[in-house]
Design goal:
Blueprint: H1 9-12, E1 24-26, E2 63-65, H2 73-79, H3 89-96, H4 99-119, H5 124-128, H6 130-143, H7 147-160, H8 167-178, H9 181-204, H10 211-229, H11 233-238, H12 240-267, E3 268-269, E4 274-275, H13 284-300, E5 303-314, E6 317-323, E7 330-335, E8 343-348, E9 356-362, H14 366-373, E10 378-382, E11 386-387, E12 399-404, H15 412-417, E13 421-427, H16 430-445, E14 451-455, H17 456-459, H18 465-476, E15 480-484, H19 487-499, E16 504-505
Helix pairs in contact: 4-9, 6-9, 6-13, 9-10, 10-12, 12-13, 18-19
């Protein structure tokens, strides 16, 4: 999903304000800033005490009035945004060259070196079995993007290594699981390189081959190449529907062309100039292609049209309620039709026994605008859900989940279902914006001991995001911070936390 550029700076997490400013709060109810945490009565476990003055969430409406006297220069300085600290080049490089890019680099380098060896006849195997290298790469590219396989990986790794190994090892598991897309991209591009090499060999030996093999080799190249180009970051993020349409349907066309290409190429005998179908099943590329096709089909067998309830608590947000309880850390994709325009949202659920889950959608694009203007009674979804980095929360003894605005949808289930996780939610007038259902879940399951709500409208200032996260991280005794926000907020929070040596994971903005 592309970042939401319409939210204010507070929700982007880019402000560097202080905890309080000299503005009088008038309310018949208690202040939104709780003093419990200052006195060590916030309900946190004894090992974390004494606590810094961290405000707990209280859902209430507070009227703001300007002070009666003119503010002094010192008071104005509290409101002004302080100078940003310079982030070291090493931290920036580490964030840029993340595990995604490391996976990508390793896959590309391995395939590129192998390709050079094949082209120079240094290594004959990939030259003689180029089809197997093409389909092997495509198989891995599809495998790491298949819901069934990724769910299996999360289940095995998060169950086997929960809490007991060293922290660096558990952080490595989370990072690897979050960034498997680097393997997908690297294998897909490598497959195209091998496909071009394969076609060059075919055209070099075109006299002894059937013309149909040459034709379908070119068609396969074009289809797979277009599918790859449609996934370029600038196109995918700026024109999501164009990316989805071309990547999916050109990819499917590429699979069909590949089947024909493999059958013709493996069955053809250049000596007798005839086709022997019995030869096909004895080739590696046939089995790679068969397994890849099965992996592509499996998720589509779980597509269902399901009833939904949509509430519009404010013009900015739509709350979508679906049946079935969910484990934490899962992503739900919904669409108005069975084939096109699937949109991913984090799921909110109290557990698999609850019988329901919620999605929070910011009203930004055409799809969500249609949900508000003409709420449907049914939507299409895949019953097999995708796992996200939040699903690795069980690896850690304690953690902090940070989100802004609608990013709550990816965070709340983790904190509800795991009592060792703390929620920091930043936004503007959250209870009014997101409605009683969402705020009710927070009140029931997290308030007051495991949530801090930063309401920029009620406080009259924007959050010094990194400082608040650091304070809660140390007070709560967390091992890791997981952030869900937009690109700008993600960049600034991750830079600040990495500079401070705090383990953290953010929203993945891959390349």
């Amino acid at each position: 999903m592309s970042s939401d550029c319409s939210v204010d700076d507070a929700e982007k997490g880019i402000a560097e304000g202080c905890y309080a400013i000299p503005i009088t709060l008038q309310s018949s109810r208690p202040s939104i800033v709780s003093q419990d945490s200052c006195s060590g009565k916030g309900g946190l476990p004894p090992p974390c005490l004494p606590l810094p003055p961290l405000p707990h969430a209280k859902f209430e409406t507070i009227a703001l009035t300007l002070p009666s006297k003119e503010l002094s220069q010192n008071e104005l300085a509290l409101i002004r945004r302080p100078t940003k600290k310079r982030v070291s080049s090493w931290v920036k490089f580490r964030l840029w060259y993340n595990t995604y890019r490391r996976f990508f680099t390793l896959v590309i380098l391995f395939n590129f070196i192998s390709l050079i060896c094949a082209a120079t006849r240094t290594w004959e195997y990939p030259r003689n079995y180029t089809g197997a290298w093409i389909l092997g790469n495509l198989l891995f590219a599809v495998l790491v993007r298949t819901e069934l396989f990724t769910r299996f990986l999360y289940l095995v790794l998060c169950s086997a290594f929960a809490k007991w190994p060293p922290l660096w090892f558990r952080l490595g598991i989370s990072s690897a699981l979050q960034h498997v897309g680097g393997i997908h991209s690297g294998c897909a591009i490598s497959a195209v390189m091998w496909l071009i090499f394969k076609c060059s060999l075919i055209f070099y030996d075109r006299v002894s081959l059937n013309g149909a093999i040459l034709a379908f080799g070119v068609l396969t190249n074009l289809a797979v190449g277009f599918a790859m180009l449609s996934a370029l970051p600038w196109l995918r993020n700026s024109h999501h529907n164009v990316f989805e349409r071309h990547h999916r349907f050109m990819g499917w066309a590429g699979v069909v062309f590949t089947w024909v290409f493999v059958f013709l190429g493996d069955a053809y005998d250049s000596q007798t100039k005839t086709f022997y179908v019995s030869k096909v099943a004895h080739q590696q590329d046939f089995w790679f292609l068969l397994f890849m096709t099965i992996l592509i089909i499996i998720p589509w067998l779980t597509v269902r049209r399901v009833p939904v309830e949509i509430t519009i608590p404010s013009p900015k947000v739509a709350i979508i309620k679906l049946k079935r309880g969910m484990r934490q850390g899962l992503v739900c994709r919904i669409s108005e039709g069975p084939l096109m325009e699937y949109h991913a949202f984090g799921t909110i659920s109290t557990g698999i026994e609850s019988g329901e889950h919620y999605l929070i959608s910011g009203v930004q694009g055409d799809f969500t605008r249609r949900l508000v203007e003409n709420p449907p009674t049914h939507l299409w979804t895949r019953e097999l859900k995708f796992a996200a980095v939040g699903a690795t929360s069980s690896l850690y003894r304690r953690g902090l989940r940070v989100c802004t605005g609608t990013g709550l949808g990816a965070c709340l289930s983790t904190c509800i279902q795991n009592p060792n996780w703390y929620l920091l939610w930043m936004g503007s007038d959250q209870e009014k914006t997101f409605g009683p259902e969402i705020s009710g879940l927070i009140k029931k399951h997290l308030y007051p001991d495991r949530v801090t709500l930063w309401d920029s409208k009620a406080r009259g200032t924007r959050a010094n995001t990194v400082k608040i996260i650091k304070d809660i991280y140390h007070a709560w005794g967390a091992e890791v911070v997981i952030i869900t926000t937009n690109a700008q907020g993600n960049k600034e929070m991750m830079e600040g936390l990495k500079e401070a040596g705090i383990p953290c994971f953010g929203t993945l903005w891959d390349f």
